Amino acid sequence: MTRFAGYRLLGCPTCQAVHAVANLVSFNLMSFETWTDGQKVHALFDHREGVRQCASCDGVFLERETLFMGKARTRWRNDEEPYEIPAFLLRPANEPVWTVQRLREKLGAFFAWVMRGGLPAPASTHTDTGTSSAAANDTYVEYPDFCYVPDTALAGLIMHGSQSDELMLALRKLYWRYLNTPYRDTARRLIEKGRDPTVAFMASELQTSNMRELLALLTKYRPEAVVTRAEIHRELGEFTAAVELLAAWDGSDEEANTILKAARQQVAAPVPVVYAWQRKTPMA
Length: 284
Ligand SMILES: [Zn+2]
Known about the structure:
Blueprint: E1 3-11, E2 18-26, E3 33-35, E4 40-41, E5 51-53, E6 60-62, E7 67-72, H1 87-90, H2 100-115, H3 130-137, H4 154-160, H5 165-192, H6 205-221, H7 226-235, H8 239-247, H9 254-264, E8 272-273
Antiparallel strand pairs: 1-2, 1-7, 3-4, 3-8, 5-6
């Protein structure tokens, strides 16, 4: 079951535009179809490898590269209840010297804080002009969602090349799955006709070069992602490397077992992973 409690306010790392992201308390990762390359079809929740796009400046970044600005109960900017009690309001009660003058100062600071939209002041010093006063007048405005980068934009972003390695890793992983999608459509048709679809898979030059780049990034930054690395070796036709990686791995799950079985059969095609709860329906 997917539920959420409030929102996190996250700022774009480039232009600092604030976006609201629902706080997921528990979420359902179940999908109708899961493939060995990690593609989930009809998933209730797709994280898209954390790749997000700013609704304001169109910058592309990872969600963990955003600036944490605070929490909110609703996504409305004029939320009457402050979502976070500022430190200067918590402090006075414990302070020994407590005068009317100080109380007036604290209240003045509090109202200034509310007028700024209840947002903690951004790190840069020149924010009390322009943007923040415009934001204060903007009552009843919703914080936007981050945009999701569509598959069709991936090639352009990868070619652009100025991304951080971590972002490039995420982009290439999405691109890998996207390039496998035409095969998935073919495979479904062939499975329906009771034929072996795996003979129809032939990695193109583009797929091969993307997989090689992705594998290099994974080996450098995610050596622990053994199952994914083994799957890429397998799709590149390097079955021995795939089997060796998985044989030395001390984990075991349905994805890994499916990949190992296909590698031993020298099958390079992406394969649907069939989970125990799905076995009621016969599937290849
Ligand atoms: Zn931005």
